[in-house]
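Progress report, Aim 2. The chain analyzed during this reporting quarter is listed below.
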Amino acid sequence: MRWTLRKKIILGYSVAILLILIVLGWAFYNIMHLGRASEAILKKNYNSILAAENMIASLERQDHSSLLLLLGYQSEGWTQFSQMEAKFLQWFSRAKDNITEKGEREIIEAIDGAYTFYLEKFAQLRLLSGSEKDKAAVFYHETLFPAGEALRDACFSLKQVNETAMFRTSNNAKSVAHRAVISMLVVGLTALGLGFVFSFMLSNFLTRPLRHLVKGAKDIAGGNYDVEIADESSDELGRLAHEFNDMARKLKGYHDLNIGKLLAEKKKSEAIIHGIDDGILVVDADFRVLDINPAGARALGLAIEAVSGRHFLEVVKDERLFQLIRQSAESGKAPGVEEGQDIITITQGETSSHFQYRISPIYSETNAMLGVVLHLRDITRLKELDRLKSEFVMTASHELRTPLTSIGMGIELLRESASGKLSPEEQRLLDAAHEEIQRLKSLVNDLLTLSKIESGRIEMEFERASLPALFDKVVADMRIQAERKSVELSWQSSESLPPLKADAHKIAWVLTNLVANALNFTAAGGYIRLSAEQIGALAYVSVKDNGAGIPIEYQSRIFDKFVQVGDQKGGATSGLGLAICREIIRAHGGTIWVDSAPKEGSTFTFTIPVAL
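Predicted structure tokens for the chain:
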């Protein structure tokens, strides 16, 4: 028969169960034996003792009946004697039927004879007590009373014989119990010892191949593929050892075949990473630095040798960037970072460098999380160019304001003083020049505002601002334009909405700009609705319309500079309004976005912190 691992385990459990059954059977036998010994005490002796005691009690009452006869109470004495006689004979019959001890039969026969003699003498006493009381008293004292004492002594002998037997049986039961305890202890300890020895042998038999397998696995993990496990048995463990040996041979062949390729690929990857101009930093699942290329080390101002194995926060002391890396490691996805917020500034001495970062998780072929890659792209020159551009735009815009103001004033004077002297064509050209001057002035003002916000020069006056009051102001300011286009303009807000922590003038400008844009794209009969609700510590403010909507291709860059939707109805604009809105909302610590579908309207939403 082939012994499988399952059969061996079942055999082990069967032996343990067998030992338990043996102990239980032996205990049951001893308990039954002890019970029979206790039962013998009651069955053999107790009934006889009880009969003897009741016969003695009956004799005492009969003796009392004799005294009643001597005192002249014939009827009462005879009645009581007859009752006690019946009771005596009843208990005598029980004692006679329960003869169990040696000598007990002789005592019963003696009691029988003595009681017959006693009855005869009582009959004589009864006759004498009726006529000759003096002789009756003498007869009682000399004959009847000694006969009763002899009968009582015989009953005591019966009781004593059974009491002696009861004590002997009780001592025998104690001996049985003592022997049962000792024998059960011996059998139990023997079974325990056998079970322990068998369990040790079985566990050693089962775990010995496993220990060999563990040692072999450690050898393979350490790079030693020349491992051979002895597969002595034919059970599952033996087959496992055979398969393990086969795996070790295949791993050795695979290792010998591919180690060169792996080393070549590793060197190639290292050469590519080290040759990239952008900084690359790799951390493991415990956020310790695995690798860093020279560009990354230069960006962080560290030596490559001093970085390896250190925690990320020891190398890059930026808690926000670390939280993004942790988020990527936990979610398995690149963290969502808003455009413009994916920049880190590193200061070394008096020099500051700006890097745009990208975070990507690394997976194995089995989708196991290996680590996270931080890609640092040096945008210091781009930031400097952007700063120079902003300064140029600000300077140019500022310089253009004066001549544009002068030109605008001149055109206004011409329109007022020469309106009747010009031909219709000249008047049309003058009006066109006035419109273009106004457009240029609006463009210059928007450029100045945007430049100040981007450079951080614009001042924000944060205070507790009431959103319903801002809605009222914006609706009042834009009501005339809405009525001209036959567009319904309304607002609604929760009564429990707390005040905002914001610059009221800047938020009013954002709302006015969003409403003006909505008017440009909403036909007559449409609506524009302002609403707000609180979610957590933020107020979500929305401007919704049912106008033409925003084409799909414009939605991803609608907040960029100079982006204009081609089919707007309200005339040309600078294309800077939404860009300024985004910068103002960012300055408040919020975000802004749009939900739109062509021909179904648009909803612009931004968040503002509430005043807690």
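The chain has four domains: 5-198, 277-378, 385-455, 463-609. The first helix runs from residue 5 to 70. These observations will guide the mutagenesis work planned for the next reporting period.
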